[in-house]
Amino acid sequence: MEKHHLLLFRILMSLPTVRRMELTQLNCINMERHPAHVRQALMFSLSKVIENVLNAFYQNHLIVFVKCHFDYNPYNDNLIPCKEAGLKFSKGEILQIVNREDPNWWQIWPISEYSGRSFQKSLTAASHVKEGGSAGLIPSQFLEEKRKAFVRRDWDNSGPFCGTISSKKKKKMMYLTTRNAEFDRHEIQIYEEVAKMPPFQRKTLVLIGAQGVGRRSLKNRFIVLNPTRFGTTVPCAFNCQVLWTGKSNREGVTSRKPREDEKDGQAYKFVSRSEMEADIKAGKYLEHGEYEGNLYGTKIDSILEVVQTGRTCILDVNPQIVKALKVLRTSEFMPYVVFIAAPELETLRAMHKAVVDAGITTKLLTDSDLKKTVDESARIQRAYNHYFDLIIVNDNLDKAFEKLQTAIEKLRMEPQWVPISWVY
Q1: What is the DSSP string of 45-113?
Q2: Which domain holds residue 377?
Q3: Which UniProt keywords apply (predicted)?
């Protein structure tokens, strides 16, 4: 308080069930640490002002739900104006945002039932959070974008506004997503707005994983066991060695000439190279590649044709093709994206030995090959984790299949959080 003026820095919104009003901080100072008679005097003089401000908040704010793509702990944040007011969350949590007027700090309500995991447990880590209490603070999209846009992070929150970034001692890497495509290339993800949907069957099931982790085996097992519910396109044959020839599947496309035992439209649709190149340029292919001078690819329309039969189209997408993930993650395809992670090197070595001894494969892999699979799996997870709805470590193919099958059945039985663009 200076010159008989009281600076009210921030008002945290109360939950709808709370009738009383609570002033938790003034000038970045926790009110709970002050004597009762001081708090009472301040609240008496400010009660009408706070009530008016809160009424304006309730009239103007829009409830928004977001999925978090990073972990956050307010006690490790040097920018937050009051650590006790911050709320801890983990990657994948669903948060309900009730106020975004502050450009740097959003307010959320700790409502555990909105999350697929036990969000309330993480919230109670902050000592001030009580059931039916006030909203808490999390960094805004704007603040996190700026924070991640600098390689060096020399923060200074001693200025006139709490929780802002100092303009000193920063090495700029990139700026705002709206002004620079670098953010898209670096796959920086902060929050994603989502909506809750009733149970429904996803149009596509996308399996992603390093070479040799078993994603194709899982895909084929699903289709063989339930061909009326699942289908697929012919995989992009980058090496032309493994072709899917199920009766109900759509064909792939290639620019090579058909062999003697091949017919157009069975395993492949054969077109000229110039025609295929034109379609690739027009964006008609989900993915494509070249082998021995010939082009191979999967057309987007072939996926939609499987979906239009009422089946879920299963795809094992090449993880190097980020475009494929971005194309699929729309209301047109509504994918459920599952990352098939490689197990530890020792486990992978034992699994490979078992399939060789059983005569399932004659291809021998060296320790260097197996280590490359493990390393590639870790790289894919780091780069594209924000796309994944589920992660399954394939240390046993039967158990991995059961986990995937259980997850798919839940989609038909339980509500789902999906990107807001799928709904509106």
Answers
A1: HHHHHHHHHHHHHHHH---EEEEESS-B-GGG-SS-S-GGGB--B-TT-EEEEEE--SSSEEEEE--GG
A2: 199-229+313-413
A3: SH3 domain, Signal
Please name the amino acid found at residue 20.
R
81 CB-near residues (< 8 Å, 6+ apart): 9, 10, 25, 28, 105, 137, 157, 162, 163
DSSP 385: G
**Other Cβ atoms closer than 10 A to 185:** 10
The secondary structure of residue 322, as a DSSP letter, is H
The token duo for 177 is 């997503």
Question: Letter for the amino acid at 271?
Answer: V
**291-331: pLDDT as tens digits:** 778 888 888 888 999 999 999 999 987 666 667 888 899 99
Structural domain includes residue 217? yes
Q: What is the CATH number of the domain that holds 236?
A: 3.30.63.10
Is residue 6 in some structural domain?
no
Provide the domain count of the chain. 3
Both tokens of residue 123? 């919230």
Torsion over CA of 163, 165, 166 and 169, rounded to 10 degrees?
A: 140
CATH number of the domain where residue 407 is located:
3.40.50.300
List pLDDT tens digits, range 209-254.
998 898 989 999 999 999 999 999 864 333 333 333 333 334 455 4
